[in-house]
Design goal:
The protein is of the alpha/beta class. The protein contains 7 helices and 13 strands. The model has no long low-confidence stretch (mean pLDDT about 95). This is Anthranilate synthase.
Length: about 240
């Protein structure tokens, strides 16, 4: 494992896509994620959804030094004890199980984890938290997801004393595209940022291990690589520690 260019595993969609003469289900991820990792000095490896066991998750993560859980479809509400809202996506239970298993194994190993949008919700639900299934019902507006693939610029305020505050300072302009959000915060997690509506926009696990998740899309701000630089740096430390064992 190279500490100077650590390998970062990124979860992906498994969805229908058109490319060339083909129209087929494919494991895919917007290139912005990959470009952000490589621009920050890491090597990106894609981890597409597939049937999973704890042993498979362990074998997959043996080849990387950090895990990024990316954006995507809404989680199955059954995972946090709710029935589906009319606006909730039809669940992708294969991806849900895949990411929960990878997250559990990464945390068992003390591997650095960065969650993005859906990834923040995966982290929260995995640790016993819940979600607001349709944020407009809570705040009365659709400002967090304008629709049509158009991201909404928003200001978030970090919580003093958190890892995120150390990385980003007191405030940060971010790009949002979400209609769900964290409601009850999972066990041991702390809120590390909120927006002007009071919506939780970031959570993290206190302590030495790097486990941080944001509700926004940092890959859509290519001039601000601070979160990606942080996960790459932590992955380098993790890789170096493995070499030293």
């Amino acid at each position: 494992m190279s500490a100077s260019e650590p390998v970062i595993g990124l979860t992906t969609y498994l969805d229908r896509a058109k490319f060339g003469v083909w129209d087929a289900r494919a494991g895919l991820l917007p290139a912005q994620y990959i470009q952000s990792i490589t621009a920050a000095g890491g090597i990106a490896v894609l981890l597409p959804p597939q049937p999973v066991t704890p042993d498979i998750a362990a074998r997959v993560l043996a080849g990387v030094s950090a895990l990024v859980i990316t954006g995507g479809r809404d989680l199955d509400p059954a995972g946090y004890g709710q029935t589906p809202h009319d606006e909730t996506d039809r669940p992708d239970t294969t991806r849900d199980a895949w990411e929960f298993a990878l997250l559990a194994e990464a945390m068992r190993r003390g591997m650095p984890v960065l969650g993005i949008c859906r990834g923040a919700q995966v982290l929260n639900v995995a640790l016993g938290g819940t979600l607001h299934q349709h944020l407009p019902d809570v705040i009365g507006s659709t400002g967090h997801r304008a629709g049509g693939g158009v991201f909404t610029p928003m200001s978030v305020r970090t919580v003093a004393g958190t890892r995120l505050a150390e990385l980003l300072g007191e405030t940060c302009q971010v790009q949002c595209y979400h209609h769900q959000a964290i409601a009850d915060v999972g066990a041991k997690l702390v809120v590390s940022a909120r927006d002007d509506d009071g919506v939780i926009e970031a959570i993290e696990l206190p302590g030495e291990d790097f486990v941080l998740a944001v509700q926004w899309h940092p890959e859509e701000s290519p001039d601000d690589l601070r979160l990606f630089a942080a996960i790459v740096a932590e992955a380098g430390k993790y890789a170096l520690a493995r070499v030293s064992e």
